Amino acid sequence: MAKTKSKKMQEIDILTLDYQLAELPSSQHRAGLAGLVLVLRWLERQPEFKQQVEAGAVCTLTRLDNKGATFKLNQAGLKALFDEIYAASTEEQERTQLFKNKQIWLDAGVFGSPYTNESAISKDHLMYTRSFAPEYVPYYLAGVKLSV
């Protein structure tokens, strides 16, 4: 019987992500990178995030120039970033006067994409299956729509 050597995988404490704008395949990817930079800059000003950094979270923007950006993350920092990106909040607005002579519709749920005729619900597809053409665009939107 052959002997097997077991190699332990090295744990990565801090992950460095280096994005070069010239290597990103599309303008949507570049826009996503810009959004990530904005979220990180906003997150650095939040008191809750500062407490997490003091506790050991690493989620920093180490380089930002006209060629790209570099980020340093650890598991706690990545969790803080994702918690902020996917957090939902409720906002209420008070109006002193409602719309006069207007018909208001409030729709909530899953909507079709404005880019394609695809849908998240297979029975709503024209040919029942998805095509390859809209592969990199959203094929459904979820949320609330107010029509006045």
Structural class: alpha+beta
| Share of helical residues | 10-25%
Could you give a short account of the major beta sheet?
3 strands, antiparallel
Mean pLDDT: 78
Separate helix tally: 3
Strand tally is: 5
Span between termini: 76 Å
Q: Flag low-confidence runs.
A: none
Strand order of the largest sheet: 1-3-2
What does this structure look like?
The protein is of the alpha+beta class and 148 residues long. It is built from 3 helices and 5 strands, in the order βααββαββ. It has helices at residues 27-43, 47-54, 75-85; strands spanning 15-20, 59-65, 68-73, 105-112, 140-147. Strand 2 and strand 3 form a beta hairpin. The protein is extended and about 55 Å long. The mean pLDDT is 78.
Features:
24% helix; 3-stranded antiparallel beta sheet; alpha+beta; 3 helices; extended; two-stranded antiparallel ribbon; single chain; 148 residues; 5 strands
Question: What can be said about this structure in brief?
Answer:
The protein is an alpha+beta fold and 148 residues long. The protein is built from three helices and five strands.
How do the strands and helices of this protein lay out in sequence?
Elements: E1 15-20, H1 27-43, H2 47-54, E2 59-65, E3 68-73, H3 75-85, E4 105-112, E5 140-147
Antiparallel strand pairs: 1-3, 2-3, 4-5
